[in-house]
Amino acid sequence: MASLRIVADENIPLLEAFCGDLGPLTRVNGRNLDRDQLKEADVLLVRSVTRIDQALLAETPVRFVGTATIGTDHVDIPWLEAQDIAFASAPGCNASSVVQYVLSVLSLFLQRSERRTLDGLTVGIIGAGNVGGRLVRVLSGLGVTVRVSDPPLESIGADFPFAPIDDVLACDVISLHAPLLRDGPHPTWHLLDRQRLARLRGGQLLINSGRGAVVDSLALLERLQQTDPPLVVLDVWENEPTPVPELLDRCWLATPHIAGYSLEGKSRGTEMIARALRQWAGLSMTPAMEGLLPPPPVSGLQFTAQCAPLDALHRALMTCYDPRDDDARLRKLFTSAVSTGQSSGPSFDRLRKEYPVRREPTSLSVSVADTGGNTEAARLLSRAGFTVST
């Protein structure tokens, strides 16, 4: 096989290990990538910040494009097909990472609300694809009442607890995982518009870790400036990488599009597009992701019989990932940008590029005291993805 010239986003991990033998690999800033950088490229590997279309790829030698992400709304797939350019994405690669993010946010919400049980808690999920569907299964396993809005999946008889969107928006917690669609029978652009946001009440929690423009950000800001606003957690932003500062100020938690940024999630995305690339090139796939990941910073926890089940789950989740750390880093960035009159965009992207290592619950072994009272703790921890022993 002839050597392949690969251009890749600098934030795709482990690419040298998966593809270093295929040919020269050039790393680039994905958000600022232009056609001149692709004049001698056979392969382009990106993340969601790069728009893939005719304007970028016309008259370049690129014949394979891969995105190490679940979503593909940044890719003009019909144009690629018309040009006979091969394409691969990584559906589901970071689903468990986003679920981890939502569970950690939900655990903080339960602490804030002083809830001691999951009984009676309702969670509405909009979009039940790879991420939303996994979240439905995890929350249902934890004993949470879940309501789902996903008209396309409902129309084909998918097995989820579907409900009208108004019922979903009436839940204690609402988590958004819909793809961004501007047209078609079920558009999601500004799905949560001024009218729907007006119906949210104080005490509710709205989490968006899907696509920023599913929520009308200016309408959301107006709602948060009114009396009795809901709690809002945003990981994705309509004006990314320069969110509206006033909106960020009024969020309960704000993070820089990193819900899917666990080391496992990012590495799984790399593995999936590397496998597709190697298959396109007629080569076998080596090595496996599991052999490339370093040991986790914390490998084990031990809970005694004195730790209540929900508290054990909270402590384990926070050990793996505490969203307040990312919130603090983002707010510090914006405070500095505002005080100096600079754009927050480059620093927003730097937070993502220099993101600290974060591991998923599967990396953490949890020991629970072998007593009858701790059966529930072991069940909750296991359902949340931890490796549990008694």
TrEMBL record:
Residues reported in the UniProt entry to bind substrate = S48, T69, Y261
Catalytic residue positions = R211, E240, H257 (proton donor)
Entry keyword Nucleotidyltransferase = no
Sorted alphabetically, the keyword list is: Cytoplasm, NAD, Oxidoreductase, Pyridoxine biosynthesis
Using the record's annotation, list all stretches that form the Erythronate-4-phosphate dehydrogenase dimerisation domain.
292-381
Going by the record, the broad EC class of this enzyme is oxidoreductase
Q: What is its EC number?
A: 1.1.1.290
- GO molecular function, one example? NAD binding
SUPFAM superfamilies, A to Z: Formate/glycerate dehydrogenase catalytic domain-like, NAD(P)-binding Rossmann-fold domains
The entry's localization annotation reads: Cytoplasm
GO biological process terms, alphabetically, are: 'de novo' pyridoxal 5'-phosphate biosynthetic process; pyridoxine biosynthetic process
Q: Pfam families from the entry?
A: 2-Hacid_dh, 2-Hacid_dh_C, DUF3410
- Recorded catalytic activity of this chain's protein: 4-phospho-D-erythronate + NAD(+) = (R)-3-hydroxy-2-oxo-4-phosphooxybutanoate + NADH + H(+)
The main location class comes to cytoplasm
- Any idea where the D-isomer specific 2-hydroxyacid dehydrogenase catalytic domain is? 36-281
InterPro entries referenced in this protein's UniProt entry, alphabetically: D-isomer_2_OHA_DH_cat_dom, D-isomer_DH_CS, D-isomer_DH_NAD-bd, Erythronate-4-P_DHase, Erythronate-4-P_DHase_dimer, NAD(P)-bd_dom_sf, PdxB_dimer_sf
Give the pathway: Cofactor biosynthesis; pyridoxine 5'-phosphate biosynthesis; pyridoxine 5'-phosphate from D-erythrose 4-phosphate: step 2/5
Q: Which Gene3D superfamilies match?
A: 3.30.1370.170, NAD(P)-binding Rossmann-like Domain
Give the record's family classification: Belongs to the D-isomer specific 2-hydroxyacid dehydrogenase family. PdxB subfamily.
Q: What function is annotated for this protein?
A: Catalyzes the oxidation of erythronate-4-phosphate to 3-hydroxy-2-oxo-4-phosphonooxybutanoate.
Cite the record's note on assembly: Homodimer.
Tell me what this protein is called.
Answer: Erythronate-4-phosphate dehydrogenase
What is the source species?
Marinobacter segnicrescens
